[in-house]
Amino acid sequence: MSVQTLPAALAAARLADFDTVIDARSESEYAEDHLPGAVNWPSLGDAERARVGTIYKQDSPFEARKIGAALVAANLARHIQREVLDKPKGWQPLVYCWRGGKRSGALSLVLDQIGFRVTLVEGGYKAFRGAVLAQMPELAQGLQYRVVCGPTGVGKTRLLQALAAAGAQVLDLEGLACHRSSVLGLVPGQPQPSQKAFDTRIWDALRRLDPARPVFVESESRKVGNVAVPQALIAAMRASPCLRLDLPDDERVALLLEDYGFFVDDPELFCRRLDALVQLRGKAVVERWQEMVRAGELETVVRELLHTHYDPGYSASIERNFAQYAQARRCALADRSAGAMARLAREIAASVS
């Protein structure tokens, strides 16, 4: 047998054809981004790469290669022992590293010698990243969007979830970004992906969508927390038809207290997040809000945040950026209940099918 190679774009399109996608890079490289569904079998870990690199620069490239080879061999043995002994003869892995070179080549050679049908990604992750960026505009512009608009707290994310449950196609950018898209939107315990990983998640989601059916997406700004939505996608969304979701203010406040329950559980976390608004709202206003939070007046603070901070900014932004917002279909909810969301989602999904 011999190791096969596939161009990165073709490998990306055929990921489902492989039993396992293996990233042979270090832990930190894998954590920054990787092919969808890939598992990490480092040929050299972060500390080992640093050690070999130091020897290469300070001592001798030859000595570095010897030590590197010993470390790679030991790591490969552990991967084989842990991951491969239970694999059947027909198991077909796809393997890559940074540029499709030594690290993935070493693993592929061993797997090939065992008798598995191994495929290497030509150019490795670097080429895959290039394919993602090259394909993103066509994928983004090839879909028909319905943009769910509405001020903070009306339940846009809940409606997207209800639409998905009703069988509609949904692109949940906040879910992919692990962020609720505001200065208070970082969810504790859920770090955001890197920009590269966010791009890959979007690319992977877009390629799975049916261009013949509408895709529901929330009216996001260019950035969701610390990551940016690809320009081609933002442009396509902003030119698309809109739905305007309305919910009474009391229900909006209650919904936000439910969705941001971690602020209810940890008022000091809420106070620390409010510090981000000092530049926009002034120190005195923010300190008053913090005092109210510590006094248990969260509902009042949330209501003031909506009326003085979120609503004015959202109104100006949505009218400026979304070309069809003035003609948006109005979707009024009487309450925030799951039943109300489900009924509206079924109605919307039926109207565009």
How is this structure best described in words?
The model has no long low-confidence stretch (mean pLDDT 95). The chain has helices at 8-13, 27-32, 46-58, 61-84, 102-114, 124-141, 156-165, 173-177, 195-207, 231-238, 249-259, 261-265, 267-274, 278-281, 283-294, 298-321, 338-352, and strands at residues 4-7, 20-23, 39-40, 93-96, 119-122, 145-149, 169-171, 215-218, 223-224, 227-228, 242-246, 329-332. The protein has 353 residues and is an alpha/beta fold. The chain has two domains: 4-132, Oxidized Rhodanese, domain 1 (3-Layer(aba) Sandwich), CATH 3.40.250; 142-352, Rossmann fold (3-Layer(aba) Sandwich).
What integer value in Å does the Rg equal?
25 Å
What number of domains?
Answer: 2
Which architecture of the largest domain per CATH?
Answer: 3-Layer(aba) Sandwich
Q: Approximately what portion of the residues adopt beta-strand conformation?
A: 5-15%
Tell me how many strands there are: 12
Number of helices: 17
Structural class: alpha/beta
Low-confidence sequence ranges = none
Principal-axes shape call? globular
Task: Summarize this entry quickly.
The protein has 353 residues and is of the alpha/beta class. It has helices spanning 8-13, 27-32, 46-58, 61-84, 102-114, 124-141, 156-165, 173-177, 195-207, 231-238, 249-259, 261-265, 267-274, 278-281, 283-294, 298-321, 338-352, and strands at residues 4-7, 20-23, 39-40, 93-96, 119-122, 145-149, 169-171, 215-218, 223-224, 227-228, 242-246, 329-332. A five-stranded parallel sheet has the order 1-5-4-2-3. A five-stranded parallel sheet has the order 7-8-6-11-12, with helices on both faces. It has a two-stranded antiparallel ribbon with strand order 9-10.
